[in-house]
Amino acid sequence: MCEEWVADCRLRAGTDLFAHRWDPVLLAALRPGPLRRVDLRGHVGGISDKALTESLRRLLDRGLVERHRYAEAPPRVTYRLSALGVTLVDGPLRAVGDWVLEHGDALLG
Questions:
Q1: CA nearest to 24, candidates 91, 109, 107, 104
Q2: End-to-end CA distance of the chain
């Protein structure tokens, strides 16, 4: 554990993964497989183009998502979970989802 919540604290880095509104949602949306940006935005719903761009950049920078550009005309790009991203989605994110299913009414009530 960290003595202080400094920027390079591992615990803080872990909690930051859930601090951004759309990051966990995008990770969950990518769980079934790679998606193009337009399809990802359609699956999520309610996310602005700016928020999508910011979230994808954050997830790419943290190594949770991979971007694949195909050498085609017109260009095609897909996003998919990295191996690290899969461990987050299948581990802590799934546990949070299970917890919310069980206790969600209490949160909203």
A1: 91
A2: 33
Alpha-carbon distance of 64 to 79, in angstroms, equals: 10
Reported as a single tens digit per residue, the pLDDT across 17-28 is 888 899 999 999
Q: Is residue 30 within 8 Å of residue 79, measured between CB atoms?
A: yes
Encoding tokens for residue 13?
């880095």
pLDDT at position 5 is: 56
Q: What is the pTM of this model?
A: 0.85
Q: How far is Cα 102 from Cα 97, in angstroms, rounded to an integer?
A: 9
CB-CB contact of 27 with 85 (8 Å): yes
Q: CA 20, CA 35: separation in Å to the nearest integer?
A: 21
Q: Distance (Å, rounded) from C-alpha 87 to C-alpha 92? A: 8
- Whether the CA torsion 50, 51, 57, 61 is positive or negative: it is positive
Q: Sheet with 65-70: list strands edge to edge.
A: 35-36, 76-81, 65-70
